[in-house]
Amino acid sequence: MATVVAPPQSAASGGGSGPSSRTESYVDTKRKDDVRIANITAARSVADAVRTSLGPRGMDKMIASPNGDVVITNDGATILNRMEVLQPAAKMLVDLSKSQDSAAGDGTTTVVVLAGALLKYCLPLLSSGVHPTLISDSLHKLSVKAVEVLTSMAKPIELSDRDSLVKSASTSLNSKVVSQYSSLLAPIAVEAVLSVLDPEKPEMVDLKDVRIVKKLGGTVDDTELVKGLVFDKKVSHASGGLTRIENAKIAVIQFQISPPKTDIEQSVVVSDYAQMDRILKEERNYILGMIKKIKSAGCNVLLIQKSILRDAVTDLSLHYLAKAKILVVKDVERDDIEFITKTLNCLPIANIEHFKAEKMGFADCVEEVSVGEGKIVKITGIKDMGRTATVLVRGSNQLVIDEAERSLHDALCVVRCLVCKRFLIAGGGAPEIEMSMRLGAWAKTLPGMEGYCVRQFAEALEVVPYTLAENAGLNPISIVTELRNRHAQGEVDTGINVRKGQITNILEENVVQPLLVSTSAVTLAAECVRMILKIDDIITVR
């Protein structure tokens, strides 16, 4: 921005309250420029931190927290979430990554890298004297036009075309630590999303209906999609409890099968042995009465919600339940109750008086299965099962399991994007180069400074193919130049094949991504940069 800095005035030069000070035309905007440049520099440093993790050949980051936890990942949202960013403008890039994660689920690194590149190209414009508002407006026009360019490149797909969905999920997984398992995880992600899809609302997919259960032991190869329910806990074995039930009638209960306690915290002192025997007898009768009601309803599997105030079950109640041939899974988390009842197509029972057969769910088999060093409970063959899916993720150590879960979440989000907006575009830097070229040509038709700004930002979009080539160990300048040349000849779907180290038709190599991921990345990056540009001061409130 063009600024004229007022020279420091001394008393001798008439810097008092005379007429000259009232007609002063100089404005000192140096502070505003300094704040803007400081914000841009801080935000760019965050973008540079994750830039090396972009693409299939991107590096991984090891994040060590003060309490000794270690995370190894190359997921942009996870890296930025774990970083302790103090500068307010840099925090905006962390929020930008979160926004992309919630909007599309994938492209969290791309969106930050794009924002960093756009900010880099803002600096020469600002130093040339272009007003920030003009730069901001040009950026808005560029993002709208960029979405049009991306939409014109997109190819429609149908949900019945399962191969295209799997290819898109595989592309998302190829840049992850667990990329070698993409052939296994991609079909699981597609199956899981399609199984929770409601035909009446085909554009609404709630990923809360897909539950991921992590279990240590084995390798990622042992990961499976379970058509039913999985509990990462053992069956209660007290007094020889059952571990397998066929033709199960399952009840989810939220009350306790244990002696009642007083409403307020107090102690009852009993010194007479006869009275003590009477208390124990009453406790037994109370528990037996509850279990008889449960048995008379035909229930043979109990899922008991975790209790805070008192024990949900006691050794005595487990003993009687085992004698009644009822399988018990205790300490079910409160947050899981909604998912369990939806899957089993049953209702939670809050009181023993409401225990009725119509509130129960039915399944072919409930069994305890040994997995690795521990055990899990599997419920399969559920009658009238709700639209839910459970994925059992396995791994040799906790770091691998956590990364597999994050990668699977990204793949699920990609498939969800395709369900919401059924268009695919090529990956491998092809859309960014095409946008850069078409927006560069469009900039020539715009008048004055606006055209100059758009041309600069069109160049900034080349950062994605440049970074992909750089991270793959290729020569980025020659690769991007050749890519630009091929796109100028009309080869729209040509991109960087990092596995072969050359430029190929990326669609034929099955490197595809949802249109929503790219459009959302460009729109959100432009929005974030515009906001940073318009900040001219930071006011700290104590």
TrEMBL record:
It is found in: Cytoplasm. Transmembrane segments: none annotated. Residues 1-30 are annotated as: Disordered. Pfam families: Cpn60_TCP1. One of its GO terms (cellular component) is cytoplasm. Its main location: cytoplasm. It comes from the Eukaryota. The keyword Repeat does not apply. Molecular chaperone; assists the folding of proteins upon ATP hydrolysis. Known to play a role, in vitro, in the folding of actin and tubulin. Belongs to the TCP-1 chaperonin family. This is T-complex protein 1 subunit delta.
